[in-house]
Amino acid sequence: xxxxxxxxxxxxxxxxxxxxxxxxxxxxxxxxxxxxxxxxxxxxxxxxxxxxxxxxxxxxxxxxxxxxxxxxxxxxxxxxxxxxxxxxxxxxxxxxxxxxxxxxxxxxxxxxxxxxxxxxxxxxxxxxxxxxxxxxxxxxxxxxxxxxxxxxxxxxxxxxxxxxxxxxxxxxxxxxxxxxxxxxxxxxxxxxxxxxxxxxxxxxxxxxxxxxxxxxxxxxxxxxxxxxxxxxxxxxxxxxxx
Length: 242
Ligand SMILES: C[S@@+](CC[C@H](N)C(=O)[O-])C[C@H]1O[C@@H](n2cnc3c(N)ncnc32)[C@H](O)[C@@H]1O
Fold this sequence. Notes:
Layout: E1 6-8, H1 11-26, E2 32-37, E3 52-58, H2 61-70, E4 76-79, E5 92-98, H3 107-117, E6 118-129, H4 134-141, H5 144-154, H6 178-188, E7 191-198, H7 207-222, E8 233-239
Parallel strand pairs: 1-7, 2-3, 2-5, 3-4, 5-6
Antiparallel strand pairs: 6-8, 7-8
């Protein structure tokens, strides 16, 4: 399967793919019960025209308040920890989890919860940075304050690191790689509908992008190809058997 991860060219392409997966499920189940696990302050999908309820859970109360103020799109908003939260088994048709597992100490426990909370036939959508990409490697081996500085002074996000705002400290559980997640799926009877790789930082045609690409290629070369430079994110669409 690892070689069959498709490379997504843009965030728009990613959004299209994920929305169409959810819309396809809606043909058979309505209303759809969706859990946005680690919802933070924003949801990037648009599911206009379909009947669904959205439950958001997040550890960070400030992020949830911002979410309510800015979008007010959650039917249920819960302050809670994904490792200990207690939803009933088979509660959700879709569990959407974007850029959260790399912040969790026990990603295995969270995935076990998701597997139980998902209804048979339901979809689990996971988005994580690949720990074996150049980006993932740098994020793992540099201190949190440097991530805050990068967001503030390179990306220009003044609120970076304040309550409710990224970046959050990372842990990168070893499970978070193509191979680790494939093994988890095999052991838990989850079907991998499709895996995708995405490159978030090398798409624009600017001098900065070109420099970053060169640096990423050099690091990948120095690591004898062990670290990937063509992508930084992994996206998996998994299905629990009926
Ligand atoms: C990088 S943000 C991503 C937010 C959102 N999913 C997005 O894509 O914009 C990570 C989020 O995961 C949340 N988080 C981290 N560990 C968590 C845990 N154990 N339980 C619940 N939420 C958690 C953080 O509070 C934060 O809102």
